[in-house]
Amino acid sequence: MKKNKHKTNFDNKLSEFDETKYKAIFKKQFTRLLFTYLLPLIFLAVFFHFEYRNIISESEKLHLKSIAVSQAQMLDLFLRERIVNLINLADNPQIEIPPSSKTFESYLLKLKRDSDAFIDLGYFDSIGIQKAYIGPLPTLLNKDYSKEKWFKTLKENDKRYVITDIYLGFRNRPHFTIAVKRQIDRYFVIFRATLDPEKIYKYVQSVLTSKDVITAIINIDGYFQLAHQKLGNLLEKSPFFPPKTNQPGISIASLQRQNTDFGYCWLTQNEWCVVAIKEKWGETFLSNFETKSITASLIVVAILVVVITYRSKKIVESEKEKELAEREKNIAKLQLEHASKLATVGELASGIAHEINNPLAIIASEAGLIKDLLDPQFDQNVNFEELIPHLNNIQTSAFRARDITRKLMSFVRREEYKLDFHNVNDILEELIQGFIENDLYVSNIKLIKNFSQDLPKTFTDANSLKQVILNLISNARDAITPPGTIFISTQQISNEIHISIKDTGCGISQEQMSKIFMPFFTTKEVGKGTELGLSVSYNIIRNLGGRIEVESLVGFGSTFTIVLPITNTTK
Amino acid sequence: MENKIKLLIVDDEVQFLESIAKRLELRGFEVITASNGQAALDFARKEKFDIAIVDLKMPGIDGTQVLGTLKNEHKYIEVIILTGHGSLESAVECTKLGAFDYLPKPYELDDLILKLEAAYKARLEKKFKDNEEKMKKLTSLATGLSPIAILRELRKLDNEEK
């Protein structure tokens, strides 16, 4: 039951806690931990994320470029082969000029054997008329091509061959042509073959190793020649504008309002450019990885926040426990102090009993005497005036007893710490007159006071100080085998007040000296001392900001000095 | 010689001395008061007292010293301790030193008188016993001693009692 009571007491105490203070502590701890743990983590995460992204993006670019290069080389090789096929045909010395339609068909078949991209074959004279044709569109025979760009180029320049861009032409189907010029003495003839871009594209695509990358071929004006269906249609204006350089490179295009990197490489055979772009442009390869890592980070952050919250709560809890323990300690300390105060009084009790019993004895005696005087048996015949001195004696004795009890009560009463300005001399004087003077007088102990008259007032608790002084004087008294002397002096030394209580008692040995301030140490006979006095006195004086100094010589006596700081501010 | 019991009261409280003395006088005691130990011892050396009432706590020579000295110097005096400093230890100590009784202050006069009577009786008995022994001794001595020798012995015995 006692325990329960204790517990409820505790709970009450807990509810007294200043919650806002603990909320503030919690907040502080929480942010502190957050800053120490989470912030660097986030910082690092962001840093590495960007670093990684950068690296990935760089390697992505290189990847795109290398694909563009490989495709361009592929295409170059392909075109070169087709040109060589055609040149071989044109330069064949056995070929008939002009060729007959029958032999011409075998030429086409021969070409088709080399590559199935070949669609048809034509023969043109120097004027630009298609004199022979074999292929799916026989209507093209005898058509005049003299205005065509490729014809003009071959006619006017010293070039062996021309590869055209892809165009729809007369047949209205995307195709491109390779034309080869053969110089025969003063005039020339031209062999021209049409090729199917689809075939080429398929061929090129077949060597594309990366699934995520799509490619397109554009001409110098930026029109699609061949393109993945996602990018656009043939002969449409493309969004790619690769710079015309010999070196392959990386550039940026805007696709569907998204800036995206693409790799490019110009062909050597033709003014075509291969561009390579990620199939899902605008996204990084990372996207999947990123969502994963973000989720993971969030989980980590959430766990950290939970841990930090838990830690902060723990800290607040331990703070609370600390305060509770501190309060308990204070309560225990107060109780101890009060117990020791009572004990000090107990020690004085015999002296005090004497002080009270004496006036009581006078009262009883005087009262008895008056009764006797009035008793007819004794036949004293007193008049009332003769009784007055006896009545006065009774009165003064009663007041004497009352004064003692009053002083005792004022001392024993559990009073709160009450700091105020006090003159230490006054406190001593009051104490000496109240408790000590008479007790020492009848114990044959001389009391010699030597108070510094210009002692400044100090801010202190009179009650605590009284208790300590009383304890020290009581110890001094007990150390003396009468007759002896107790010297009490006050003195100001720099900014401190020294209250010395010196006795001519038995002194304290070296061995005892180390223990005297420990609780439950006593040199007194069992049952005589309280065993608490000095340890409590020491704590009280320390709480008042001072200290107790001891000097002692065995056989000559001891001097206890209370040193108090002079405090003239209320703090 | 009147047959009043002669008391010596020692106490440092003068008012107390006066009142207790008067009351005891009214009851037929002969009372001499002393307000300190030294004065009490001086009185006791001058006059013969039956009983001393002694306070314990006194400045100068205190009660226990007075008790010890009185018992030492005077064979038949009985001492009653009357003190406000009432503790068991002091009572035991005083009894060891030869106090007849111990009475705490404030006292009941009737108690005190009972104790005084008891003390006086004890004193008389002791004296009587001693006298008897003296008589025996004397009678044994008387056979074969000269009258002068008997007188010398008697004075010796008388001197023992003071």
Topology overview:
The complex is a heterodimer of chains A (571) and B (162).
Chain A: H1 2-15, H2 19-91, H3 101-114, E1 118-124, E2 130-134, H4 149-156, E3 161-163, E4 176-184, E5 187-195, H5 197-206, E6 213-219, E7 224-227, E8 249-255, E9 258-266, E10 272-278, H6 287-374, H7 384-412, E11 419-422, H8 424-442, E12 445-450, E13 458-461, H9 462-479, E14 484-493, E15 496-503, H10 510-513, H11 533-543, E16 547-553, E17 557-565
Parallel strand pairs in A: 12-14
Antiparallel strand pairs in A: 1-2, 1-5, 3-4, 4-5, 6-7, 6-10, 8-9, 9-10, 11-13, 14-15, 15-17, 16-17
Helix pairs in contact in A: 2-6, 6-7, 6-9, 6-11, 8-9, 9-11
Chain B: E1 5-10, H1 14-26, E2 29-34, H2 37-46, E3 51-54, H3 63-73, E4 78-83, H4 88-96, E5 101-104, H5 109-142, H6 147-160
Parallel strand pairs in B: 1-2, 1-3, 3-4, 4-5
Explain how this protein is built.
The complex is a heterodimer of chains A (571) and B (162). Helix content of chain A is 50%, strand content 20%. Chain A has 11 helices and 17 strands. In chain A, helix 6 crosses helix 9. Mean pLDDT of chain A is 81; it is low at 1-15 and 525-531. A 5-stranded parallel β-sheet of chain B has the order 2-1-3-4-5, with helices on both faces. Chain B has helices spanning 14-26, 37-46, 63-73, 88-96, 109-142, 147-160, and strands at residues 5-10, 29-34, 51-54, 78-83, 101-104. Chain B is elongated. Chain A binds chain B through residues 350-351, 353-358, 360-366, 368-369, 372, 378, 380, 390, 393, 397, 441-444, 482, and chain B through 12-13, 15-16, 19-20, 22-23, 26, 57-60, 62, 83-87, 104-107, 109.
Low-confidence stretches of chain A: 1-15, 525-531
Spans of chain B of at least 5 consecutive residues whose pLDDT stays below 50 are: none
Chain-averaged pLDDT of chain A: 81
Describe the biggest sheet of chain A? 5 strands, antiparallel
Helix content of chain B: 55-70%
Which whole number gives the mean pLDDT of chain B?
A: 86
Number of strands of chain B: 5
Distance between the termini of chain B: 17 Å
Order of SSEs of chain B, N→C?
A: EHEHEHEHEHH
